[in-house]
Amino acid sequence: MANVTLRNVRKTYPGGFEAIKGVNVDVGDGQFCVLVGPSGCGKSTLLRMVAGLETVTGGEIDIGGRVVNQIEPADRDIAMVFQNYALYPHMSVYNNMAYGLRNRGMAETEIKTRVEEAARVLELSPMLERKPRQLSGGQRQRVAMGRAIVRQPKVFLFDEPLSNLDAKLRIAMRVEIRKLQRRLNTTSIYVTHDQLEAMTLADILVVMNGGQVEQVGNPLAIYEKPATTFVASFIGAPPMNLMSTRPEEIRSQLAGSNAADAGILGIRPEDFVITDQTPASGVALPLTVEAIERVGAETFVYGCREQEGERVAATPGELPPGEIIVRIPGTEAPAIGQKIRVAALRNKLHLFSGDGRKRLEA
Amino acid sequence: MVEEEGFRRYVAHVILWIGIAIVAFPVYIAIVASTQDNALIANGQMSLLPGGHFFEVYYQTIFVGTSGSTREPVGNMMLNSLVMALAIAVGKIAISIISAYAIVYFRFPFRMPIFWLIFITLMLPVEVRIYPTYKIVADLHMLDSYAGLSLPLIASATATLLFRQFFMTVPDELLEASRIDGAGPLRFFWDTLLPLSRTNMAALFVILFILGWNQYLWPLLITTRDDMQTIQVGIRKMITTTDALTEWPIVMATAVLAMLPPVFVVVVMQKLFVRGLVETEK
């Protein structure tokens, strides 16, 4: 059992590219930490640095009170699950799991006990003699997990372990990983670009962008109070609607709040209601419905702001300027082309500074 | 595959059979001639049906050799050829798999120049560098030895390239998983890379064995003693150009014997060979 602490960790590649620009994260003993961010944000690099597969340019990586910057991956007491599983294709399932233990000179009887126990937990017992190519994707994934478990390491590292599975299996494995981690109570760091995976798995969520940490914290706290517009639009699907507070129409409705300093207003799609009334305190917008997406339990209404709406650019999941997504329950929806009014209450508004780097309390 | 109907199919088959006959007939002649009496052949009265001297001729060929031109039992020549071909095939695979491993998995100074040096030697077959090579082998007192026969042919760019290309298709994660599993560079090579290269090695072995077995020019140059000559050189020497009578049955028997080991290797390793050439799954 161990804490993992990253102190001002940096990574600069020989070409001068700065992949990680000073990251500080503290993962407590037994916690499940998820690193989430768009492609190229450095999350995988950071994980590989913890694993020892990438060198550390600056700062300290501390596992269980020991700085491991210069320690070989095998001696860091970590286990890693790779995106493509990286099973040894020529070895049976049993040998795949036993290999690391054998290299450590463990007695064959102890290896057998551990592998069989892991196989039982992961429901792999009937396939111990099979080769990886005879297994389905989900089974391979479980073998990769088994290889990590038998080591009984201080820390599990997961590098997008579910992204090669189909959607249904992904959800099942997600739940299984979480259950397993709770039971073993092993500190884990998990990398994903899927914000849903991140929200459901994490004790602590680390949102990364461009080699930097945007926000660290409890997933729901991050969802409720995103620190930057990047986090606001990255966490939550569909993304938060972000709009400039400059148009008079919006500015007037925000009077009396911090809105004077705010440059950007954010409202989550689920916080809008379609209503003709203007709330006593909040924001109401007239929209023209442009598209409807019905997914069963809920419906997404894509609308265009009626006046020359000027939409603030949000990096991921960006929408065309002036477009607003509204999420309503059920399948009842206005017709395309219909003019509607949507409103959000004051306490559901998110205000950010003009550059999107700072959250302001309304 | 397209199924051809009726007439066109027969035409295709006839053409194929003609092709087979063209290739197989000389082989048949060799087999038939190796069972005939020499006097008959010399008189130009060779029958197209097998004669009755099979055991006699092959016994003499393998254990005694021709009575005039070489006087060396072909059994011994075959042994020489076998040692040479095996040494070349095994040696080439061993050296090139190690050098490919170094080039792909290690970062050392002048890695790329070294790779290009190896690559450039592709353009220099034995025939081109034969004088300097001969000089070196002679100075090292390796004439008339197995080492002299095989060593200069072992260093190989083709095999190194082939293994390099194969190693580059092995996912990096396997190496990383091995590192986390506590396997050092040698362990990774031995436990993971070698087993994965098995089919490639088999395919290469077939090609290299046949290449080594069929060497003619090099053994001709560096072997002078009769007991060191290889079968390919031996066949040529048996055919006298002077007025002595060529012992055709023995020459033909030698030719047949010379065909056997490559055929054997191909037949035995065919499955691995084909898999090694086409396999893509890692």
From TrEMBL, chain A:
Gene Ontology cellular-component terms listed: ATP-binding cassette (ABC) transporter complex, substrate-binding subunit-containing
Q: What is this protein called?
A: Glycerol-3-phosphate ABC transporter ATP-binding protein
Q: Which organism is it from?
A: Bradyrhizobium nanningense
Q: Which residues form the signal peptide?
A: none
Predominant cellular place of this UniProt entry's protein: membrane
**What PROSITE patterns does this protein's entry cite?**
ABC_TRANSPORTER_1 (PS00211), ABC_TRANSPORTER_2 (PS50893)
Q: Which InterPro entries match?
A: AAA+_ATPase, ABC_transporter-like_ATP-bd, ABC_transporter-like_CS, ABC_transpr_MalK-like, ABC_transpr_MalK/UgpC-like, Mo/tungstate-bd_C_term_dom, NA-bd_OB-fold, P-loop_NTPase
* A Pfam family that the UniProt record links to this protein: ABC_tran
> What are its GO biological-process terms?
carbohydrate transport; glycerol-3-phosphate transmembrane transport; glycerophosphodiester transmembrane transport
Q: Which UniProt keywords apply?
A: ATP-binding, Cell inner membrane, Cell membrane, Membrane, Nucleotide-binding, Sugar transport, Translocase, Transport
Q: What functional role does this protein have?
A: Involved in beta-(1-->2)glucan export. Transmembrane domains (TMD) form a pore in the inner membrane and the ATP-binding domain (NBD) is responsible for energy generation.
Query: What domain of life does the UniProt record list for this protein's source?
Result: Bacteria
Family that this chain belongs to: Belongs to the ABC transporter superfamily.
Give every ABC transporter domain span: 4-235
**Where is it located?**
Cell inner membrane
A single Gene Ontology MF term assigned here is: ATP hydrolysis activity
Q: How does it sit in the membrane?
A: Peripheral membrane protein
Automatic annotation (TrEMBL), chain B:
Q: Which GO terms describe its cellular component?
A: plasma membrane
**Which residue intervals define the domain ABC transmembrane type-1 in the entry?**
78-269
GO terms for biological process?
transmembrane transport
- Transmembrane residue ranges: 12-31, 82-106, 113-134, 146-167, 248-269
State if Transmembrane is listed as a keyword.
yes
Membrane-topology annotation of the record? Multi-pass membrane protein
Q: Which protein family is it in?
A: Belongs to the binding-protein-dependent transport system permease family.
Q: What does this protein do?
A: Part of the ABC transporter complex UgpBAEC involved in sn-glycerol-3-phosphate (G3P) import. Probably responsible for the translocation of the substrate across the membrane.
The entry's protein name is: sn-glycerol-3-phosphate transport system permease protein UgpE
Native organism is Bradyrhizobium nanningense
Q: What is the lineage of its organism?
A: Bacteria, Pseudomonadati, Pseudomonadota, Alphaproteobacteria, Hyphomicrobiales
